[in-house]
Amino acid sequence: MSKPMTKHEQILAFIENLEVGDKISVRQIAKELNVSEGTAYRAIKEAENQGFVSTIERVGTIRIKKKQKENIERLTFAEVVNIVDGQVLGGRAGLHKTLNKFVIGAMKLDAMMRYVDPGSLLIVGNRDQVHKIALEAGAAVLITGGFDANDDVKQLADELELPVISTSYDSFTVGTMINRAIYDQLIKKEIVQVSDILTPIESTRFLYIGDTVDRWHQHHEDTKHSRYPVVDSNMRVVGIVTTKDVINAGDERQIERIMTKNPLTINERTSVATAAHMMIWEGIEMVPVINQSHRLVGIISRQDVLKATQTMQQQPQMGETFTDLITGQMQDVEDNGEVHYECEVTPQMTNHLGTLSYGVITTLITEAGSRILKKQKRGDLVVENITIYFIKPIQIESTIEIRPRILEASRKFGRVDVEVFNEGTLVGKALMVAQLIDR
């Protein structure tokens, strides 16, 4: 028997079917779908996490267009309002639109307008005439310094559905904040998720709980695969069927009676690194992929995951993460045939007391242990566990030595002892355990 949709799922489906730009409120959802305000609130938050709803202070919650991964570096005007802690003065209906670029209007009008295209955002101070001309050119306007816009500009913004936003920050600060947000999005774009590598539902063979074993045999004959997800009438994954399940089962036997219930599934927004860890740890060849509503959207195989992991190792990164910045300080040093790593403690690596922060030392230990394992074992690895036995305070601008030593390296696991020295004194000691992935 297929389960009916939960109230939570009904609300998500309702929100997803709204027009882009529509306003949403907890009270409205609760009344329209006859649910409690708490249930409505949780579903709206989930819709926000999934990226098709945006909540803006002093404006409310609006339905926005879910961004594709290739357009993730483009911010919506709704996101800009949140970034700059802004107030929407007009053109609320256009908050779901994305900006192509932003222009800081610190020049004469003619020179400024050469850079203003439809879909751009003009960042400018208290210049009413400029606000109007920018809107007519198809650009949204962000007014800095906390100034208001005149009524004509607000009316025009509403007519053209182009937001006019006011913020108390100055133009330079606003430009820096937006740039930072775009840079963060670019890093996020480079993180490969399961949704990027899965075999989509259109190309996936699966079974319904009402199917018979004969249907499994048909799929097996066509694809030669042995594992298939089982779904109910709402496309929610309820089981999995393998060769082992169908042995000695008659062709007319119902799939529901022989399937393995509550199988392991992976969310489409899970990172490929996490998926690799999960599949290798569980020893599974294929996993069904579900969305936030627990509906089947495709499958991934261990081969897909390993191939993607290897490709990720070869690709240049678009933006440096904090881990890149920290590990970039580490220098390889060879001493009597043994490799260790040296690193200077920069101000960015310290806590408010001026000593090396716990998070940074954990990153350095992880990197040193990973590097030494990769030198001995070709392939990739997933860190399983790190135990730090002790740390003494390490002062700013010290040079530390990180000495990793392999205790054990089998085909699947590696254990590394890592010691940290400062001026010859032992200041840290840890044990790292990692899973090894053959290429």
N-end to C-end Cα span: 43 Å
- Overall geometry comes to flat
CATH topology of the largest domain: Udp-n-acetylmuramoylalanyl-d-glutamate--2,6- Diaminopimelate Ligase, Chain: A, domain 1
- Report strand %: 25-35%
- CATH architectural category of the largest domain: 3-Layer(aba) Sandwich
Number of helices: 16
Task: Using the CA coordinates, give the radius of gyration.
Answer: 27 Å
Top CATH class of the largest domain:
Alpha Beta
Q: Could you name the CATH homologous superfamily of the largest domain?
A: HprK N-terminal domain-like
Strand order of the largest sheet: 17-18-20-21-22-19
* Average pLDDT taken over every residue: 82
Low-confidence stretches: 315-319
What percentage of residues falls in helices of 4 or more residues? 25-40%
Overall domain count: 3
Counting copies of identical and different chains, the oligomeric state is: single chain
Overview of this protein structure:
- This protein has helices at residues 7-16, 26-33, 37-50, 77-83, 109-113, 128-136, 151-160, 171-190, 194-197, 213-223, 243-246, 255-258, 272-282, 302-314, 322-327, 358-376; strands at 23-24, 53-56, 60-63, 87-90, 102-104, 121-124, 140-143, 164-166, 199-200, 207-208, 228-231, 237-241, 260-261, 266-267, 286-290, 296-301, 331-335, 338-344, 380-391, 399-409, 413-422, 425-437.
- With 439 residues, the chain is α+β, with helices and mostly antiparallel strands.
- It has a 6-stranded antiparallel sheet with strand order 17-18-20-21-22-19. Strands 4-8-7-6-5 form a 5-stranded mixed sheet, sandwiched between helices.
- α7 (151-160) links the parallel β7 and β8.
- The longest helix is centred in the middle third of the chain and has 20 residues, at 171-190.
- Mean pLDDT is 82; it is low at 315-319.
